[in-house]
Structures are given as structure tokens and as C-alpha cells.
Amino acid sequence: MTEALAGVRILDLTNGPAGGIASMILADFGAEVITVLGPDDRDLAPHLAASRMWRRGKQVITLDANDETDRARLNELAAGADATICTWRTRTLTATGFDWPTLHARHPHLIFSHVTGFGSVGPYADMPGYEHIAAAAAGRMLGFAGVAQRHGPVFSALQVGIHACAQSTATALLAALTERGDDGEGRLVETSMLQGILPYEQGAMIAAQFPEQFSELFGALQNTSHEPPMPSLYYHPAQAGDGRWMQFGNLLPHLFDNFLIVTELMDVLADPDYNQAQMMLATEEKHEAFRERMLRRIQDRTAEEWMTDFIADGGVVATKYQTTQQALEDPDIVANGHVIERESGGVQLGPLARMTDTPAQPGPDAADGADRANTWAASPRPAPTRGGSGAPPLTGIKVVELATIIAAPFGASFLAEMGADVTKVEQIGGDPYRGLGVGIGSARVNAGKRSISVDLKSEAGREAVLKLVDEADILIHNFRPGVPERLGIGYKDVSARNPRLVYLQSNGYGPDGPGAQRPSTHPIPGAAMGGVMYQVGERVPPDLQDIEGLRSWTRRLMKANEVNPDPNTALVVATSCMLGLAARRRTGKGQQIFIDMFGANAYANHDDFLAYPGKPGRPMPDDDLCGLGATYRLYECAEGWVFLALTNAIERERFAAALGELGIDGPSADRLAADDSALADELAALFATRDAADWQAHFVPREVACLQADALAPAQFWLNHEQSDAMGLTVPVEHPTWGPYRRHGPMAFFDGRHDRPLLGPPLAGQHNTEILRDAGYDDAAIAQLAADGVIWTEVEEGTG
Question: What does the alpha-carbon distance between residue 70 and residue 221 come to, in Å, rounded to a whole number?
């Protein structure tokens, strides 16, 4: 069976999980990958339990880039590769002749994907690229304040930055390969761990720029208080009668109605003080009384009993809290192929996506790559016959998005960042997400698109959408199984009209298993795949809580169960679409692709989503949720907090030397290697002697990864910090009604350009006329569609 990336050659010059997972995805779908390790002891893999997974399907060789002979061999491999993924720092690239200008002159066909910590420019350009040092700098740890029972920022345990960086690396590289083809010129692709943190800022940055309109909402979006608010009734953790914790995610009124019916709480619907649209009661006293009643009701039965009824109903969004190791046996995870058995023993993450015509075939454990290296060296790629246009790589690619809320629409927006023409098809009245939070989140996830609002249930509306699909390269939807077929836009229908269409279906649980027909929202995979349990150190009380205990723990769990599952899924949507385009380039045909929130969030838990004999346990945050060890954690200073990250001997030596320059007789490099609780106490006393800003000012020029973790909340970091500004991580755009503002920047840069313009979000139906004209409708026909109620727009007449 044909593999999507058969024949593609990837030279992997990375030694950590971000590049490792990106190249694992490519290898799973057929690419030949050679991983080059250096001769020293700085390889992270032996210290990370998941490394045997993200090195599967690859072949490994050892070369020293500082040795002239080995450097010549690296250039032979680059000549034979289609693309290189590299995490070397910029100065190392320059010293070894692997900087982009030199490399491009020598190998003009080669796509060079450079993955850094903070980007190639700016004051933090030389900082080590660890997930948590980037998260600390960007204010992400402030967002978890209150999860621990102390003040200050909290360690952001789940490695979402690595997940986002890996997916963005794979997505952008595949986009560049698609544009290059077999005869085009290579190009530079850049992403960073810092950009990997950006998708998890879901709107506070926008609200901050419109204080008169959104000041109250901004406070809710960017809550850094160590006293988290009580959850919304519809997004609520609860404890069942057997002590198991459950999570509900009934975001929309009809879903919450289903919950009320199954739990026999539906009498609240008759209360004149109950607002069904907002799912809350008019007075705080009545609202909190109902919350207490709801929480006590869930304690009447076991979690399994409740889940049996919720699944039978089919319309209640609910799950049990699980660890990642428990999630390996989740029925939906197993049924949808998200875990695979390995010949070497144990289980691992399955393929990223289910591609129906070119399925993944994950390879064996890493093997010696000497023979493959000889083959590449003997068969260099031909020189390009077509120069690069300099345009974004997806220029000319047409995407039709039939999706709502966050995950799938956000995934489509990543394609728009790379130049795709994305048409958002909305229901009459618009995507329901526009009505939540006064549209801030909708503006975040729909930037860069055009919008048409159409009645898909009408024959005329369906025909209009099918005309768009006829000319599309990609269709993305998040309907439940069976709905597209009833609407006449199922894969069988549309592929008969457009055989080259890449058709991606994104759901909560996947097409197989007990959850296939059930709705899902972001708190569900957050709870079910182990992310929340990791964030709280897998420490939740098993004994039944009284109402005060329930209120305390539901606050903390909901703060821990932040919005990350939606961006986690969106990133997989984008990567999977690119895999579909890559496969089409080989086969000439499109295909149906399935991805789901459970599988995507299993990838976000990559570090523990595997099991094998002798596997060490997942490193857990300490009791105060400061970090994973004495040299990788938060420390409180005289004023403020810092995050320290020392992971190898060189970094420990730098830290000790930097202390010596201050005249401080601190722990030696050897003492720092002990990484025990006594050392943590010693370092805590040390950091308490100075302000966080002073420590950072001293350490950054010396390339010690020690940054202030509470200097700026996320919105202020992205808008105002010089590192964000130097990298171009916000971009000026225009909102159709709010006016000018700075939107979030792209997940990847191409050709060294950090100034490429992007577009803002559309109003619902803003582009009805433009889109329909492109589809062949004349103005009279468009006017008739509007008169018949087939199309709709929120644009006021006369305003454009």
C-alpha cells in the first residue's frame, strides 16, 4: 500500500522530543529519516522514557560537526535529503557552515527547518529551548496560579509547547515540500518553542487592546489570581459516590439540558430565575444553592453508573478523570488505533491521523543508519529547475471549513497563515462560538478567513456549498458521524464530484468506539487523557468531600483543565491536512482522513503515552507544583519568581560560574548534579536574596536558563515584550467592527521573513457576495438567495 511520504528523505539534526516527534510523524507515514547524533553526552534521549517511541522508524548515525571529515559527510547527507530538521543554535550553524545562506548556496534544493527555543533574533535568541523556560517567560505559569495552594506562578506540567512545536515543524515542512515539488528551490522554515506557547493564548491579548469594550471579559480571560473562580455550571468537575472525579463539558444550552434530564435536575428549567441561554440562575444565592445540589447529586452514584447513563443518552458531555497510563486502556483510544503494540514489547502512541488510502505504518525501533547514509550520499537530489516565488507555501490552495467552536476552525486558521484561501461556511446566524465571550475567542480562531453564512439544509444552500467544494483542495468539518451524509456533503458524495479533495473529519472521540456519536468539548480530553492529573501531580482526594472540599477541588481542577485540548487538536488538524496534500502529490487523489480530540491530546501527553517493561514513571511535580527537581523548577525571590532550567553538565557549570562572578559561594556544578531536596532548599535560600529581575539580568547574558516567571501575564508578554516584538509574534490587522488591533502571529516563518502580512477575522457572511461570484453566481442569483433566506450576513447594509 502506498505511503503518503514514500521516497521523501528527512535529515534529522535534533536530539529532543520536539524535533523527534515531528520526524517520527514523517517516518510513520513513509519518509526515510536519518537521525544524526553528536559524539558527546548531550543527547537527551537516554534520559527521556518516550525517546524509544519518537525514534521509531528512523536510522541513526553519529557524526561530529566540529570534525572536518564528519562535516563533509553531513553535507553529503544534506545533498541527498529533501529536508533537514535542525535544533542547533544559530552560532553553531554559522561555525559549522550550516547557516542558511551557506547551506542554500551549497544545496539549493534543500528545505531547512530550523527549530529554536526563542527564535533566531531578540534578547533571548541564545537561551536554551526548553518547554518550561519558554512557558515561564511568556507568562503561561501565571495562568495556573491557584492550582497549588500557595501564591505565585505554578509549574505548567503538560508539555504543550513541545506538542505545538513538533506539529508546527511537521506542518510547515510539509507545506514547503508540497510547494517545492520535485523541481523547485528549497526554502528556510523557522519555528520555535516560544511560538509553541502562542496557540494557548486564546483571546486575552485581543481583549487587552479594547479596554473600553472588553475590560470585564479581559479579567476573566487572564485570571492570574491564586483564588480561582468557581467553574461555570456547564463546565464543572464533580466527585462521584465512589470517590472518582468526573468532568462535564456541556458548553451549549441543549447539551446542558441533556445533563439536567439524565441527572434528574431538570426542575430547574421551570425556575423563573433560570436563564437557559446563559445556563445560570439570576441571583448568586440561588445559583450557588443549585451548584451545591448538583455536586451532591453526582455523589449519589458511582462514576461508572453515571457514565453508563451518559453514554446511553448520547448527548451529555462527560468523562472520568484518568492518568495517562489509565488512558492507554480507554475504550475510545484503543478502538481508534491511538495505541499500538510494539514487537519490542509494550504499547506506544499510534499514528497521528487515520488516512484511509495511505495509512501510516510505524516502523521498528531505531536502527543503525550507515547503509542508508551511503545510499543517500551516492544519490544526491538534482538541482532545482524552478526558483522560489517567495510567496507563502500554500498560496493557491483552497480550503472549505464546515466547522464550529475552536479546534477544527483554529486548525484551518493555521493553513490560512501559510497562504491558503480558507472559506468558513457558517450556519445562518453564524458559528455559535461568535456568541460566546462577545466573540473574542471566535476572532482568535477564525483570523485570516473569508466567511459565507448559508442554510445547508436547503437545496439551494447545499448546491452553493458543493460548488465551493468542487474547486477546493481541502475540506475540514467537525460534524458527528452521519451528519455530513444527511446533508449531502459526505465523503462519498463530494469525492465523486472532486476526486482530488482531501477530506478531514475532526471529532471528539473518533469514528469507532463507544464515544463515536457523542459530543465533546475541551475539558473532556483534558481530563480523560491525563493532562489535568499531571498538572495537579496526580494528587486528588479519593475520599468523599464535603461541600467546602468540593468547592475547593472543583476550582483547582477546572483551573488546571485550561483550554489547551482545543489548540492541541487544532495543530493536529493542520498537520493531517498537510499529510493529505503530500499524499495527493504522490497518488493524484484525495482521501478521507480522521482525527479526534482524544488522539490529538494523547500526542500532547507524548512523554507518558506509552508503556513497556521497566519504563520509569512519569516525573511528577512536587507538592507545591514548583517543578520536577531542584534544577528544573520555580523559585520565589525577594521580589517575584524565576524558573531555573539546568539539564546537563555544561549548563550546571555555567550557573556555578555565574554565581561566582557575583561573589556568591553557591553550589558547585557537581553539587548541582545531585538534584535532591536539600539542594532545592539551598537554592531557595539563595534566590530569596535578590529580586527575580536582578537574577534574570545577570543570567541571560551568560546563557543560563533562568527567567522571571511573573514579570508579564501572557497578553502583555505577546504585545509588549521585546522578544515577541523582535520575532514578529503579533501582526497588525483590522477587525471589521472593532477596528485596528494586533493579532497573534504565525506558527512558522518562511524565507527569513518575520514581517509577512496576515488578515484579521471575518464577520459571519461578510464575504457572501465575493465567494458566490467566485463560484459562478451572478448578482441577481445572489440577491435571490438572500431574499429566500438561504444566505445571511451580520454585516449591516451599507457598511461593506
Answer: 51
Give the pLDDT score at 581.
98
3-state secondary structure of 493: helix
DSSP states of 703-763 = T--EEESSSS-HHHHHHH-HHHHHHT-EEEEEETTTEEEEEE--S-EETTBS------PPP
How many domains does the chain fold into? 2
In the three-class reduction of DSSP (H, G, I as helix; E, B as strand; rest coil), residue 367 is classed as strand
What DSSP string describes 635-679? EE-SSSEEEEE--SHHHHHHHHHHHHHTT-----HHHHHH--HHH
The dihedral region occupied by 456, where left means phi > 0, alpha psi between -120 and 50, and beta the remainder, is: alpha
CB neighbourhood size of 152 (10 A): 20
Distance linking the first and last C-alpha atoms of the chain: 51
Instruction: List alpha helices for 97-210, DSSP H.
Output: 100-106, 131-137, 160-180, 193-197, 204-208
Contacts of 444 (CB under 8 A, 6+ apart): 202, 203, 206, 410, 744, 761
> Which amino acid, 571?
L
Nine cell digits for residue 514: 463507544
- Which one of 386, 410, 445 terminates a domain? 386
Cell 518550561: give the residue. Answer: 132
Evaluate if residue 314 carries a pLDDT over 70. Answer: yes
Euclidean distance between CA atoms 97 and 75, whole angstroms: 9
Q: pLDDT tens for residues 116-159?
A: 999 999 999 999 989 999 999 999 999 999 999 999 999 999 99
| Longest pairwise C-alpha distance within the chain | 82
* Residue 653 maps to a domain: yes
Q: 605 with 597: CB under 8 angstroms?
A: no
**Domain containing 656 — which CATH number?**
3.30.1540.10
What pLDDT, on the 0 to 100 scale, is given for residue 244? 98
> Does 761 map to a domain?
no
Distance separating alpha carbons of residues 502 and 584, to the nearest angstrom? 8
CA distances to 122, 217, 440, 524, 664 from 210, in Å: 27, 10, 10, 31, 46
For residues 35 and 11, is the Cβ–Cβ distance under 8 A?
Answer: no
Q: Which residues contact 225 (CB under 8 A, 6 or more apart)?
A: 145, 146
CA distance 506 to 511: 9
**pLDDT tens, position by position, 169-226:** 999 999 999 999 999 999 999 999 999 999 999 999 999 999 988 877 766 666 667 7
Q: In terms of Cα–Cα distance, which of 1, 2, 168, 29 is closest to 10?
A: 29
- Mean residue pLDDT of the chain comes to 95
Interval 744-767: pLDDT, tens? 999 999 999 999 999 999 999 999
How far apart CA 507 and CA 594 sit, in angstroms, is 8
> Which H or E run contains 533?
helix 531-535
Enter the C-alpha cell of residue 737: 467592527
CATH code of the domain covering residue 135: 3.40.50.10540
Annotated catalytic residue within 455, 473, 566, 596:
566
pLDDT at residue 46 greater than cutoff 90: no
Tell me the three state secondary structure of residue 150: coil
Tell me how crowded residue 548 is: count the other CB atoms within 10 A of its CB.
8
Q: Dihedral sign for Cα 241, 242, 246, 252, please.
A: negative
Give how far the C-alpha of residue 362 lies from the chain's centroid of Cα atoms, to the nearest Å.
22
Q: What DSSP state is assigned to residue 374?
A: H
Tell me the one-letter amino acid at 354: R
- Point out the domain boundary residue: 648, 680, 712: 712
CA dist 785 and 464 (Å) reads 10
Residue 183 annotated among the catalytic residues of the structure: no
Residue 558 φ/ψ, nearest 5 degrees: -70, -30
| Domain range enclosing 79 | 9-201+353-386
Residue 778 covered by a domain: no
Pairing between β-strand 59-62 and β-strand 367-368 as defined by DSSP bridges: parallel
- The pair phi, psi for residue 350, each rounded to 5°, is -80, -170
Q: Is residue 703 part of a domain?
A: yes
